[in-house]
Design goal:
peptidoglycan synthesis; 9-stranded mixed sheet; cell division; UDP-N-acetylmuramoyl-L-alanine:D-glutamate ligase; 16 helices; globular; UDP-N-acetylmuramoyl-tripeptide-D-alanyl-D-alanine ligase activity; Udp-n-acetylmuramoylalanyl-d-glutamate--2,6- Diaminopimelate Ligase, Chain: A, domain 1; about 475 residues; 3 domains; MurE/MurF_N; ATP-binding; alpha/beta
Length: about 475
């Protein structure tokens, strides 16, 4: 069964159909396009129409365009619309309208991708589940995710992000979730908002398209929780608060044992115990909220808890792995925490807390004493207080517990200059510079964290560390 026939896509978009075709997927990137995909010629840095011919040559079943591109035959399988993005949105709306899936919307300043991945794992064990790929959560990512949704999906998880006011509402109106969750509200994208209240109001707009009585899950521990609660009341929703201050799902106690997080919580005044196969209070909080969603939509809670116990974050989102530095010496290894995809003050504090609590190994390597080492890059889009927010990292208890802190970027210079001499590592303008001589900054027995905003390219540091040995996946 195809995902879209040409006739169905034409009816959804009102476009002009060229040829009789059917497609099994939807793609916006010729580098990852698969046989039988519909190629969507979006305009971004470059005009997607420039790549239509290449997409068809690679096996695309058809292309969604606003004109017949150069080098493409007049009888090529096309769907011609007035505007490609609007066409994609129409396709996404039609996909949403034809499915009986329970659709979950996820947003938050931190943790939305990890929470989406938790829900994907838990619900996939209970039915056909569709979800956003990577962090496809913006004005094209949400309609693309919807357009890719098979009609027979039973669950769908749609991640929604924002950089500026007014971006969440059109996304949630398109996705029309049956339930929604706000992971947290924190100082992120402050350049575009007057204060954190504005961010809370923007995040709360994900609840605006929910039907009356629908589950609206939110973090009760944030300073703006009253704004989130007020929105659930105003919209006559089933507000569900989670966290240490949660009225419904209450975090009681958290214990980290090695790479395992053990959480004791309460739901409906009854004890609830669950585990995660990764360390971190922030992951525990996301897991608690995700379980609240699972229960609220009627899925099996016990089965979800069992699956959650095996979940681990993926590359760039807190993935933890062991790097074997010497193939002949099994103890010559270090632990690497890859959190290089994004950063803001809240997520930075959470990651540093994980590093501060990590177990090192003594008696190995050239130094003989395991260290907790951080490679930290600039946190972007923090507005006028960006320098102060970077400097503030120096005063965190977790930071004080570290052995060495290396800094990347002009904003991180504010932190670097405040570090005491015994903690101060190296500072460089770029990650490329930090990668030079990297082997001398780390050693066997260390636990190493890399974190910064994506544009700082801390992933280069992560990849360089991986190339010093080989990852061990069975630990």
């Amino acid at each position: 069964m195809s995902l879209w026939t040409g006739a169905e896509a034409a009816a959804a978009t009102g476009g002009e159909l060229r040829g009789d075709w059917a497609v099994n997927g939807v793609s916006i990137d010729t580098r990852t396009i698969e046989q039988g995909d519909l190629f969507v010629a979006l305009k971004d840095v470059r005009d997607g129409h420039e790549f239509v011919a290449a997409a068809l040559e690679k096996g695309a079943g058809a292309a969604l365009v606003s004109r017949v591109p150069e080098g493409v035959a007049e009888d090529a399988p096309l769907l011609i619309v007035d505007d490609v993005l609007s066409g994609l949105e129409a396709l996404g709306a039609a996909a949403r309208a034809r499915t009986q899936a329970k659709v979950i919307g996820i947003t938050g300043s931190v943790g939305k991708t990890s929470t989406k991945e938790m829900l994907l794992a838990m619900l996939s064990a209970q039915g056909r589940t569709h979800a956003s790929v990577a962090s496809y959560n913006n004005h094209w990512g949400v309609p693309l995710t919807l357009a890719r949704m098979p009609a027979d999906s039973e669950y769908a998880i749609i991640e929604m992000g924002m950089n500026h006011p007014g971006e969440i509402l059109p996304l949630t109106m398109l996705a029309k979730p049956d339930a929604a969750m706000i992971t947290t509200v924190a100082a992120a994208h402050l350049e575009a908002f007057d204060d954190i209240t504005g961010i809370a109001l923007e995040k709360a707009s994900i609840f605006d398209s929910l039907p009356i009585g629908a589950p609206a899950v939110y973090n009760a521990d944030v300073e703006t929780s009253a704004i989130l609660a007020s929105k659930t009341h105003d919209r006559r929703l089933h507000g569900i608060a989670f966290g240490e201050n949660g009225f419904d799902w209450k975090l009681k106690e958290l214990t980290i044992q090695g790479d395992t997080t053990i959480v004791q919580a309460e739901f409906d005044d009854k004890p609830l115990l669950f585990k995660l196969a990764t360390p971190g209070r922030h992951f525990a909080m996301n897991g608690l909220g995700a379980l609240a969603i699972v229960q609220a939509i009627g899925a099996d809670l016990a089965q979800a808890i069992a699956v959650l116990g095996r979940w681990t974050p993926y590359k760039g989102r807190g993935l933890r792995e062991v790097i074997q530095l010497d193939p002949t010496e099994s103890r010559e290894r270090l632990s690497l925490i890859d959190d290089s995809y994004n950063a803001n003050p809240t997520s930075m504090a959470a990651s540093l807390e994980v590093l501060a609590g990590a177990e090192t190994t003594d008696g190995v390597g050239r130094i003989g004493k395991g260290r907790r080492i951080a490679f930290l890059g600039d946190m972007k889009e923090l507005g006028a207080d960006d320098v102060a927010l970077h400097a503030g990292i120096a005063h965190l208890e977790a930071t004080k517990a570290l052995d060495v802190v290396h800094c990347v970027g002009p904003l991180m210079r504010a932190l670097y200059d405040l570090l005491p001499e015994h903690q101060r590592g190296d500072w460089f303008e770029t990650s490329e510079e930090m990668c030079q001589g990297l082997r001398h900054r780390i050693d066997a027995g260390d636990v190493v964290l890399a974190k910064g905003s994506l544009s700082m390219k801390l992933g280069l540091v992560v990849d360089a560390i991986r190339k010093m040995g080989h990852p061990i996946t069975d630990v």
